[in-house]
Design a protein that fits this description.
There is one protein chain. The protein is mostly helical. The chain has a domain of 78 residues. It has four helices and two strands; from the N terminus they run ββαααα. β1 and β2 form a beta hairpin. It is globular, with a radius of gyration of 18 Å. The N and C termini lie far apart (59 Å).
């Protein structure tokens, strides 16, 4: 529970329970973790990230779900939190990897030889 509390609110009503014990991550954070692991499996299998337009569209579902929860004062269900978390884990992480790759390409020295 201590390690999960670093990034998860751990509200009992929004967290999975196993044999009566609360797990250290809420449903959304569990989905993000599962989605990120699924993306890394995808990368090992396909050796490429999902398409950019698909990644943007599906990654936006999590912020929209959070906005819905804010507007409705927390109304929603854990299945939707898990689903949007998984989608964010896959597609939000793929967007992050695209950003890191682009930033690394800008920071790397040019491949052309220097003149002496």
């Amino acid at each position: 529970m201590w390690a999960g509390s670093w990034w998860c609110h751990q509200l009992p009503a929004r967290s999975p329970h196993l044999w009566g014990a609360q797990l250290p991550l809420c449903w959304r954070c569990t989905g993000i973790l599962v989605g990120t692991l699924a993306l890394f499996g995808w990368l090992l299998w396909k050796r490429r990230v999902p398409p950019l337009s698909l990644s943007i569209a599906l990654a936006l579902l999590l912020p929209l779900d959070v906005l819905h929860a804010v507007v409705t004062h927390g109304e929603g269900n854990n299945a939707r939190r898990l689903l949007t978390g998984v989608l964010w884990g896959i597609f939000g992480t793929s967007l992050f990897l695209r950003f890191v790759k682009r930033a690394a390409a800008r920071l790397s020295p040019s491949s052309t030889p220097a003149r002496t």
